[in-house]
Each structure stands twice: as structure tokens, then as C-alpha cells.
Amino acid sequence: MLRRLLAAVAGLLPALLTVPAATAVPAAAATTTRAACTDPAVQTYGPATVTGAIVGAAVHDGRAYVVTRGPKPPVIAEVDLGTRKVIRTATLPDGPAEGAPEGGWATAVTGGKVYVGTYPVPDLYSFDIATGEVKHLRSFGRNGGFVWSLAAAPDGTLYAGTYPGGRVFEYVPATGAVRDFGVLAQGERYVRAVAADATYVYAGLLDKAKLVRIERATGKVTELASAPTGVGAITLHGERVLAAAGGELIDVRKDGSDLRRTTLVEGSIDAPAAMEDGTVYLTSRPDGTVYRYRTGDTAFTKVADAPAPGDESRRIHQLDADTLLGFAGSGGLWWLDLRSGTSQFVDLLEAGLPPGTERVQSMLLVPNRALYVGGHFVMEVRDLRTGDKRRFRVPGEPKDLVRRGEKIYAAVYPSGQVISIDLHTDEVRGVAFLGHGQQRPWDIEYDPVTDKLLVASAPLGANLKGALTVVDPDTGAVDSYVDVIPDQSLMSLSLDSGRGVVYLGGDVLGGGGTPPTRTSASVAAFDLRARKVLWSVDPVPGHRTFQDIKVHNGLLYGVYKRESGAWIALDLATRKVVRQGTIAGYGELTVHRGRVFASVFRGGGNAYQLGTEAKLLATGLGDEWYTNPQLHFEPGSWYAWALVGRELARIRLDPSCPPLTIPPAGS
Length: 667
Known about the structure:
The protein is mainly β. Residues 213-428 form the Pyrrolo-quinoline quinone repeat domain.
């Protein structure tokens, strides 16, 4: 399937996905000792990673409708379920609010139209099934918001669950009238799921972990159930509401009585869907196994192995008595035969979905050999010797990458898993799960002295306690140090392997959704031999979040996210700040040839050298990284691999040269 996918993508975008011989990556030049200031400053190589990933999905009258994730503008695609081909596409244009949509988690079908709620501008669009016309209908907030969920009541009225206000909005298609039901729970930010019937709207709250009911006529809010974690999906059948909260399925009558709870042995619940006979089908994350449940069951019954292993399920729909249709977040559809348990998978790129350029999650340079670029459930590899590209699936978003011998290790969201990738075969294998609710890994490093992987992570949801996890890459054994910096998650780590110490950078906000107990982000030194914290300090009072830290020559350099752009150099001997300043924004640090560099968001996308002060090296890289802007220097030169916009670029960052002003990608 991967070979067919590569062929399909290459056929669709030859100019974008193949590096011509005349512009092949200059591997030999990578080892030059110095680039003159007159040498080419910037070379671009097309999209860093392309995707067919989807978020929202719906089914109507023999057609599936999916909305892409990541590319600008997002695409809504119509799939003929008989031929299993994409037969029509349209783009979602920019609305009047600042910023452009990148996808639509929320979809609903009513009145001959598909409705889409978007992010990171929380807007509502319609797609007319008969004419293909797309219209922008309404904005529910400013740039940085989400329409997380969308449901149509039997009369066609739409209900949208939003972020960051934690509100449900009502939209009447016939008149365009909008009603705001207000704050559903004090301090709530996410209405992650909604469902509606003739009388009520049902909402799943992520931060406060509650299932609530809203009376449509009066707006009265009633709590139906509390949950062990955030409520992420809701389905209705008859007089019952069924809601997924982590690994627990809440099954309760619509009046709040007869509450039942059933829990997966392992993992969390994805995409529960109630069928006409009351059977609820669902998948488990991260493995993707399909289960069924009926009211009265005390456990889930396995139906089939994963049709899309390691993937996210966006929606499940019953096509007929014997067939389930599933939507995989990485960009695929699967058909499951309920009688035999066998399944078929169709990649949407192979089915005709136009590939879109996405924002990059992570990057790793294997010098003179290859560049690895992490996207959404995909890894793209560019051969630096030939310019050839290839891509393969991975089970999630690789938030950070590190090399150990002939393997690359990735820390993956949302599963909180560490995976390995063989440099020779591209074989992907699971190594370990972080566990303890640590689903948001931010940083991974390899300690050659102990031969262990070190992962810094944050929890998901209303939890302040992050973790340092020590992973044995051969056995998968995990040692977890939860709350290693009290009431802070970990955003970054930096290893001094010679001293056996790893330094940790904290964030007082944790997973978000619960008030912090501390006001200043800490730096802690952790002894890898004794497995204990040696010391902890808050370098700058009131600065709440480190984005990255890096140790070099007895100093710990740090870049803050809150306050954005503040940077420091901390003397490790005295634990005092000896240098500090402000740069355009936050991002990632790297040490190369005895110097410290920073690549940051804001200001058009800037690169700096940090010393006694910050020296601007380049501007115009853009703000298109999904995680942290990164620089990956070639050994022995001042050339670094990075992004210009969403294009892969090789940039001269010689500190002795004048600052670069990089033109926009493609200009």
C-alpha cells in the first residue's frame, strides 16, 4: 500500500514532491568548513511534508464527506462509497475573522447541506450537496478558537461546542439566528462533544469532566454525570445518552437516572456510535481494536482487530447489517465485515484526495544521508544524496525525534508512546508507553552513558503533574518520575551525560484546565544515577512556561513561552541568571560549533545566536511549525535545515555574515 501511495502522490505533485537533478540536495557541500557570505543564502526544496489527514467526517446518501487537517485552505471532499473514490472537492475560504482555517473537527448533515465547524478560527461553513457551493455562515470567536463539535437536532437546528469559552451556540440555518447558552461550568474551556434531540442538547466538557444536558427551550443546564476524565464523544439511542471519557463509557438515561459505567481494560474510547438496534460500536485508542456494547453489558465485546492499527477513529457508521464504515484520522476509510471480522482500508490520497502541505511536527538530520520530517501520522524522508522522497505511516504525531545508532526514536502524541524507526528498512515498532496520563510528550533525548531514552511530558487535561520518563530502548522498560517538578509539566530537557545529570524545564499550567498552584516555571537538575532531584530554582519570577532549555559551557540557556520571547542564561554553579533579554518569540534552542542558536515563532520567524546578547541571524522563516521551530545544522558548516513557510529549506546562518531577510517560500 505504501508503494502505491508514494506512486499516487508522486503522480499528483511531481513538481512539489521530487527534487530535480539540478536542485538535488548538496550533500558534499554539507561538510565544508565555512560558507562565504556570498554563497547561496537559502535553497528551498518544496513541501516538507504532505498529508491526507482528516478531522471531521459525515455520511449521507451513499457518500462520505471528510474535511482535511493541516493544509491551507482545508478541503472538504466527497467520497463515493460504492466506487471508493473521491468524486468532488471544495475548499473552505477564509472568513472575515483574522486568520485562516486549517481544518474542521466538527461536521453535521441536515437539509441537504454538510456543515463544518473550523479551527483555528471558530467559524461555521456550509457545503451544498446539490450544487457544491461553499458559504461562510458565522464566526463564534477570534483566531485561536475551535468549533470542536457540531450536531443537528431533528428540526435541523445546529449546535456547536466551542473552545476556549467552553460554550454551546445554537444556529438556525433558515434564519441565521444565533443563541449563546453561556458558560456551562465555571472555568471550562472545551465543549468537546455535542448531541441533540427534539428537547435537549447534550454536551461533553473536557476540563471539568462532566456530561451535561441543556434544555433547548429555556437554556437550563443539568449535570447528568461526572467522569474520570474529559468527556470527548457522545452518542444517543432512544432514552439513553452514551458518552466516552477516556477508557470509560457512561450510559445514562436522559433524565439522569440509571447511570451505568463500563471501562476498557486498556486504552481510551474513540468514536462511539449507537446503531438503530441500540448496539454501540467503538474503537480503542491507541491500538484501534473494534468493540461493541449494549446497555446492561458489564464489559465490552471485541468485534475485530484494528482495521487501522495505531490510528485515531474520527467516526463510525453502520452501512448495513453486516458492515461498519470507519474514518481514520491519518486519512483513510475502512470497511469492516461484522460476520468475519475482516476489513479493508483505502488511503484517501490513493482514492483521489489532493495532497496538501501541512505544518511540521518535528525534524531530524542524519548527516550526509537523510532528513526525517514528522507530520500528522506520517514520516517523510528526503535522501540527501539523491533528492528522492518517500513517506510511511507512524501511529500519531512525532513531537520530537532522536537518533540512537541505526534507529530513530520518536515521542508520539496523542498515545504518549515511544516508537522506533529503522534507518535501513523504515520498519516502525512500538517501544513503550509513558503511562500515568502522560499523553503529550514534548522532548526526547538519548543518553549514551546509560543507553536510555529520556522523555519530558505533560499530562492531558486538567492535571498539573508532568513527568520525566526513562525508557530502555531494547526492553521497553519504563521508569516514570511523575511530578518531578511539583505541580508542573515538563516542556524540555537537556542532558549533561558526562555528569549524569538531566536538566528539566517546567510549565506551571500543566495539561491546562485547572488553576496553577505556582506562579513561576522552574528549572530542576535530576541525577540519573541516584534518580533524584538535586536542586530546583525559579530563574525569573512570574514567567510561567519554559519552551526550551539547553546546557552549554556551564550555562543553562532557556527560552520562555510565557512570557513569550524572554530568554536567559543561568549559571549552573551559582544558579543565578547572568544574561537575559528578549527575542521575537518562543521556539527551540540548539548548540552547534560551540555556539547557542534559537529559532522562534513571531516576528516573521527569526533565527538568533545567543551569547552576551541576542544576535539576529535571519528573519522571514515564517510561523508554520506545528510544534517548535527548529534548526538542524550540518556538521562542520553554517548551513542548517529548517522551514521557510511550509517548505523545506537549507539556510546559511553564519554568525559572521549580515542578517538574512528571507523572501517568502515560492517567491
